[in-house]
Amino acid sequence: MSDSGSHPSDEAARWARLTDKQRACLDLLLERQTSKQIARHLDISKQAVDLRLTAARDILGASGRDETALIYARLKQTYDRILCDSIILPQPPRLVPSHFPDGRSADDPELLASLGTDVERSRSSPPSGTIWRRDYKPAKRMAIVAAIFLFLLLIILAGLAIGQTLTRLLSS
Hints:
- By secondary structure, this protein is an all-alpha fold.
- It is 62% helix and 0% strand.
- The mean pLDDT is 80.
């Protein structure tokens, strides 16, 4: 039994009998607006608002405007549930066959990180390959830079030697 002495099935029937226009007026009534303010907000006449509120009061079995608002507020909490829009809800996760004991997918970034860099390299290898990795210490990085510098220096010296030899051959 509810506060008004009616059964829940009676309340559901009363809730179902309210029209959308009556509910719009009752929603504004819950905000403590006058009939004139409700009429302005809904762009209808004050008499239309009063007729809708009177019809709603009769449906809800209330004796006055305030009691109508109280009964409507209680029924609204019970029966006015927001339906979920399937477009807004995220898609359920897809079930992917897994060979891992905990059921994770082979594409799981945490799993890839935990398995090491071999798996990461197979996904997308950087242009430098394994020469320059983020997990190298600064000393190792400096050694790599020095080795690259020496390699470039040898190429330049070899080019100069070849150029000097060709110049001698052409001038003789």
